[in-house]
Amino acid sequence: MIKDNSSTILSIQNLTAAVDDIPILKGVNLEIKAGEIHAIMGRNGSGKSTLSKIISGHPAYQVTGGEVIYKGESILEKEPDERALAGIFLAFQYPLEIPGVSNLDFLRVAYNASRKYKGLEELDTFDFEDLINQKLDIVQMNPAFLDRSLNEGFSGGEKKRNEILQMAILEPTLGILDEIDSGLDIDALRIVANGVNQLTNSENAFLLITHYQRLLNYIEPDYVHVMYDGKIVKTGNKELAVELEGSGYDFLVPQEVGLEVVI
Ligand SMILES: Nc1ncnc2c1ncn2[C@@H]1O[C@H](COP(=O)(O)OP(=O)(O)OP(=O)(O)O)[C@@H](O)[C@H]1O
Ligand SMILES: [Mg+2]
């Protein structure tokens, strides 16, 4: 059933998905409204990155049931680039290195494609450089990174900052950040979190995937979900993340898992 709710940005309904016929997602339900920040936590291998890749249209995953509605429309038949142009941005857990493509060129092409899609004029090199210099400030990144090949030889933390730079340029409606905090030193974590906080507004929404409650001290989520074996099995507020830090995931005994809302 497709719900019509104008403030809903993303509605995932009973989503099941497989890789090479192996079921990974086993009935995910998630509703994200404009202005909200959601966090997903959960054990390694529970399906968090799979969910993020399916939302962004990664071709390796077969959706076997359910719906993904973005701004009132099913996106399951849409190509990844169409989804990106429509405002879905995924910061990868493991950002790809693309030798031979300069970071600056990549950002300009992506930005201008998004301008074109919105019916706006493309920015020339000079105007784009002005824009990017403002955005570099958000992530406190050295401009020297713009002339390097995309992510090639970047340290783990530099790749993550670069993902936020891309997001700052593209200003997505739905930003999905898969372990944006992994590999960041304490200062970089603050900078990246501040960057995300500067990009939030009442018309967009963010989905953060993280293992650590610490990130959520900097980016305050409205909801925290726990994923277990391909499903969201528990939803709460940011206190849930604090509890998990203490308790771990052992309480998720398979046969007893049902949907529990604790807020
Ligand atoms: N392309 C693939 N081929 C085979 N198995 C896959 C593929 N993608 C995901 N899986 C499997 O699906 C399960 C879920 O993986 P996923 O990457 O979504 O987990 P995760 O919750 O993001 O874990 P982590 O916290 O370690 O990042 C894992 O068992 C993984 O091995
Ligand atoms: Mg993952």
What are its keywords?
seven-stranded mixed sheet, Rossmann fold, single chain, binds adenosine-5'-triphosphate, 263 residues, binds magnesium ion, alpha/beta, 13 strands, 8 helices
Please tell me about this protein's structure.
α4 packs across α5 and α5 runs parallel beside α6. A hairpin with a 2-residue loop joins β1 (8-19) and β2. The strands form 3 sheets. A 7-stranded mixed sheet has the order 6-9-10-3-11-12-13, with helices on both faces. It has one domain: Rossmann fold. The protein has helices at 48-56, 80-85, 103-117, 125-139, 156-170, 186-199, 213-218, 238-247; strands at residues 8-19, 22-33, 37-42, 62-70, 73-74, 88-91, 98-102, 149-150, 174-178, 205-209, 223-228, 231-236, 260-261. With 263 residues, it is an alpha/beta fold. The two termini are 26 Å apart. 40% of the residues are buried. The structure holds adenosine-5'-triphosphate and magnesium ion.
